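R.M. (postdoc): so does anyone remember the format we settled on? I'll just put the structure tokens first.
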């Protein structure tokens, strides 16, 4: 691919992908801000409302695999346009829900399916635009997820402070339509490069003609998916419940939401720093370091009660978990090539979403039964160490010397 072509529109694609991931994930995670207002207004249980996020992650993961496969076949533009329409509709309809089960199904299923249409398709689309700066480009697209808590969550908190939760959530749905539908029209396929995907990369999963089914049975994908799952299981609970935990420690709601924002800003820096480091020192080495830091900081939340202490732990925690997230996409591209990346990374995202689904509902259950979050954070620390152990099993990546491994 010509460097001028990459520079001319590749970075536009990065900006569009970052915007989409920011708005989509930010709108989805705004439920953490709505959690207390919804339960106080409706009388629904905290575990019940939190389980909507659990359904959200499951639906997002399953749909993400399908969206990724569709983007391989029809292109990313059609996929993200449909997703933008569905995401706004899901938020608007959820704001009108009259029962807990209706809210769980609309928010959990429809919003989840819609949110799954952005990450894997845009990561695959952007990676096809870059050769020399792929890790950084993919990290910047993923950085939109890090910016999300600094944008949609404070916006949601401001809306809730000036209106009821239903009006606030409906407003966010309309906001999603206004931003994402026009942005989806800017998505373009990369110019076809002569010989693209003609050469194998690593393992037989990267061979020409490799099928998605065969790739999903390969050792590379098994380790990739397992690590991604455990990594997300480790940080999902602390991400979703820390705002409520901080409020329980006596912090005002708006101050507690700023912890979320600090975590998100640190995640943005982590995505860029880890992307640059991965290009220089290797993806596996950087990933293992990030997973270890993530585990330690998840456990540190047990010891904090003051705003400044929350800021310090959240900053390092966000830097670590934000930094490792895009590295899975880089590994998927290195192992499996571009031709089937949408489907393969969609499958990896599906597995990771199942890990993310554990935190909200399990954390809500822990709080409802113990009236405390200590067990959640200690458990997240232990699970995080498990992710480190799995990452040590990653097969080597050496695109200059393919090493075939049996499926």
């Amino acid at each position: 691919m010509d460097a001028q072509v990459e520079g001319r529109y590749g970075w536009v694609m990065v900006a569009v992908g970052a915007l989409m991931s920011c708005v989509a994930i930010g709108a989805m995670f705004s439920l953490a801000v709505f959690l207390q207002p919804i339960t106080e207004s409706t009388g629904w249980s905290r575990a019940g409302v939190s389980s909507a996020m659990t359904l959200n992650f499951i639906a997002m993961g399953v749909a993400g695999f399908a969206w990724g496969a569709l983007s391989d076949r029809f292109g990313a533009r059609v996929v993200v346009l449909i997703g933008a329409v569905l995401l706004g509709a899901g938020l608007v309809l959820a704001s009108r829900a009259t029962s807990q089960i209706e809210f769980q199904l609309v928010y959990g299923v429809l919003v989840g399916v819609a949110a799954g249409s952005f990450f894997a398709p845009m990561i695959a689309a952007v990676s096809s635009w870059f050769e020399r700066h792929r890790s950084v480009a993919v990290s910047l697209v993923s950085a939109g997820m890090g910016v999300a808590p600094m944008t949609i969550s404070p916006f949601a908190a401001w809306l809730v402070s000036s209106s009821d939760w239903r009006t606030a959530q409906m407003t966010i749905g309309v906001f999603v339509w206004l931003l994402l539908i026009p942005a989806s029209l800017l998505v373009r396929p990369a110019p076809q490069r002569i010989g693209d995907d003609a050469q194998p990369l690593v393992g037989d999963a990267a061979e020409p003609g490799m099928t998605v089914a065969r790739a999903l049975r390969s050792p590379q994908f098994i380790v990739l998916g397992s690590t991604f799952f455990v990594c997300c299981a480790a940080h999902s609970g602390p991400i979703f419940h820390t705002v409520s935990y901080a409020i329980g420690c006596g912090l005002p709601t708006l101050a507690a939401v700023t912890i979320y924002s600090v975590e998100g800003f640190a995640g943005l820096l982590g995505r860029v720093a880890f992307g640059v480091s991965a290009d220089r020192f290797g993806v596996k080495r950087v990933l293992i370091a990030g997973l270890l830091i993530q585990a330690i900081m998840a456990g540190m939340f047990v010891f904090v009660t003051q705003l400044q202490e929350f800021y310090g732990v959240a900053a390092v925690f966000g830097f670590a978990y934000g930094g490792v997230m895009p590295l899975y996409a880089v590994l998927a591209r290195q192992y499996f090539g571009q031709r089937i990346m949408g489907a393969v990374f969609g499958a990896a995202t599906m597995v990771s979403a199942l890990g993310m689904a554990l935190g909200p509902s399990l954390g809500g259950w822990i709080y409802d039964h113990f009236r405390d979050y200590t067990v959640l954070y200690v458990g997240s620390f232990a699970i995080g160490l498990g992710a480190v152990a799995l990452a040590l099993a990653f097969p080597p990546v050496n695109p200059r010397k393919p090493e075939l491994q049996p499926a």
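R.M.: ...and that's the designed sequence above, right after the tokens. Also worth knowing: The radius of gyration is 20 Å. The longest helix spans residues 219-248.
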